[in-house]
Structures are given as structure tokens and as C-alpha cells.
């Protein structure tokens, strides 16, 4: 088969979870099954840096299929006009897989799309306006164009069916994996103080890693942390919120100031990929009380590092963490604060969760994910 992967999620200099999911599945698939031909297709807009970034992921097994046209202009125009995708990327592929919700018009061959979640329907107020517009105008057509819709969890499958029941027969669940080369118990302990120093972190800390945005429930987390810190006094570990700035985040920053927690809560700059493992491994615990996740990659990455996790009982998070995390009520500040205290006060609990988390993370491999994806491609080609 000739298989094309739309590379939009991995073109940016700051890759999100969607991009890392594509990297994990596509690289592993190309490595395990070199008998097929693979390519990344993407608009370059004349940007040579974009080509360099994608080439780094492509390695020797995945070719590049580029167009100098503006991807932004194409996506905007094709929302209203049926401009053929095949005009820019040819008609040679058996299968083209789009990893970020939208299948453009007139793609040659079979079409697969990954729809990660339905947050724009379930919690529209937490989604950036332009993203919501893109999904409201494009997702219905996109799912109609797709031969198969892939999603990350059974929870997300049930959500898609709730809003788009007509496509139930097309939906396949392919769980994400965790990159055990990037996320594993620390093998270079000397890197932990280096990374802490670079991010101005002193002493013990709870870590949140992800976008700074409303649906991550960070305002409640900060309020809960303030209550926890008051209870334990000056010994409280810091709360480190690491990740890229999202949108509607002013309330998150102002909450820290209102609660007088500016010395305790640290907002870091964007964390480079090579610093994530030491930052994760250095944490007392990983905290992720999100109200909505299609999969919930960060808690799984923390578990793979042997770091104990606090997660909410919402959406797909229990599906990922199982009984290997302290589970809290996302809507209860008291419940989150109690979870923080349990993790802080019990080394025995932390040790138990670390052991169980490491074991559970082994079940979420990119090899398994890639094989499930290839089964879908084969089924389409029959």
C-alpha cells in the first residue's frame, strides 16, 4: 500500500498532544512494516524550517510530499469552496490519514480521520473561537467524507456517537501509546537539578504539564493547592504549571495573585522535549484534574516515568489511569485538595502508585497502536 499521513499537526515548532500521537503511530508503523510505502504530505508556505521539522520525524522510511502553497489559505478557502486536495498532493495514495479532525475535499483513495474528542460540543466555552468555527463548519462534512473515523478511547467513541449517531458504523478505537524512550524512570538524575534551575524551581513540587487553558481545570487546582498549602504551612511543595499558553487563561494567572500564591505557583516557559523527562521524574506527584480529555496523554507519560498521579474521574481519564492514580472530583476544590494532601503525606502511597503506574503504562505501546491502525488500513483495501 501507499499510505499518506497529513503532517499538519507536526509542522509547528511547538507540538501538542495531537502531533505526538501522529508521530508515535506513524514512525512506529513505518518501522514495523517497511513493506508499505509512506509519506508525510503538508503545505510549506515556502517555509524551509517547516520542511526541516517534518524531515526530522520522517527519517529514512517516510518520504515528504510538499506543496509551496499556503496551508492556512487552503484550509480557509476549502471551508467554502471544494478545492481538490489531490490538486496539490497527487492521486497515487491508496490511503490518506488526517490526524486532526478535518478531511479536505477530493482526496484520492480511501480516507481515514482521527477525531480525538468532542470537547467543542460538550464544553464549547472552553474551546478557542477559531477552532470551534473550524469544527462547526467542517467536522460534519469531514466525517461524511471519511471511510473510517479513528478515535483514542471508548469514551470518545461514545461521545462521537452521541453527537453524530449516523457514523457509528465507521468508528474504530485506537488507543494512544506512550514513548518509552522519552518517558521512563530517570536514568540521568543529574539532569533533574539542571532542568529545575533552568525553570526557577526550588525544592519539591507538584507538576502539571499541558496547555494553560480552561478545560484543564487549573483555576480549581490553584484554589485547591492554596487550601492544601495553608494546611501544611511553609513545607508545602511548589505547584509547577508547565506548558504552552492557551487561551482564556487570564483567570488562571489572576487566581494565583488573588490567593497570594505567586511565590508558590510557578508558570514555566514552554518546556523543550529533551527536558520533559527530567522535569517529570523530579516531581513529587503529577496533577491533572482536567474536566474533559479524549485520551489524557500526560498522566500516562507520568505513570511511565514512575511518578504518582492525581487525576479527575472525568471523561477518558479513568480509562487511562485505571486504579493507578488518586482520583478526585474535578468539580470539587475540597476533593482536589484532599488528593494533594494524600500524595504529600504518604510516601507509601506514592511508592505504590509509582509501581502500579509503571506496570500499567507498559500496556499502552505505540507498537500496539500502530498494529491496530494497520489492521484498519488493510480492511479498507480489501
Q: How do the helices and strands line up, and which of them pair or pack?
A:
Elements: E1 2-6, H1 17-32, E2 37-43, H2 48-58, E3 62-67, H3 71-78, H4 86-89, E4 95-98, E5 110-114, H5 119-122, H6 129-145, E6 148-151, H7 154-163, E7 171-173, H8 191-198, E8 205-209, H9 218-232, E9 238-242, H10 250-258, E10 265-267, H11 273-281, E11 285-288, H12 297-304, E12 309-312, H13 317-321, E13 326-328, H14 333-345, H15 347-361, H16 366-381
Parallel strand pairs: 1-2, 1-4, 2-3, 4-5, 5-6, 6-7, 8-9, 8-11, 9-10, 11-12, 12-13
What do we call the CATH homologous superfamily of the largest domain?
Answer: Glycogen Phosphorylase B
For the biggest sheet, the summary is:
7 strands, parallel
From the helix content, strand content and strand pairing, which structural class follows?
Answer: alpha/beta
Number of helices: 16
Which CATH class of the largest domain? Alpha Beta
How far is the first residue's CA from the last residue's CA?
11 Å
Helix fraction, binned, reads: 40-55%
CATH architecture of the largest domain: 3-Layer(aba) Sandwich
Order of helices and strands: EHEHEHHEEHHEHEHEHEHEHEHEHEHHH
Strand order of the largest sheet: 3-2-1-4-5-6-7
Mean pLDDT: 93
Q: How many β-strand stretches?
A: 13
Query: Are there runs of 5+ residues with pLDDT below 50, and where?
Result: none
| Overall tally of domains | 2
Strand proportion: 15-25%
Spatial shape: globular
**Oligomeric description of these chains:** single chain
Within the CATH hierarchy, at the fold level, what is the topology of the largest domain? Rossmann fold
Radius of gyration, in Å, reads: 21 Å
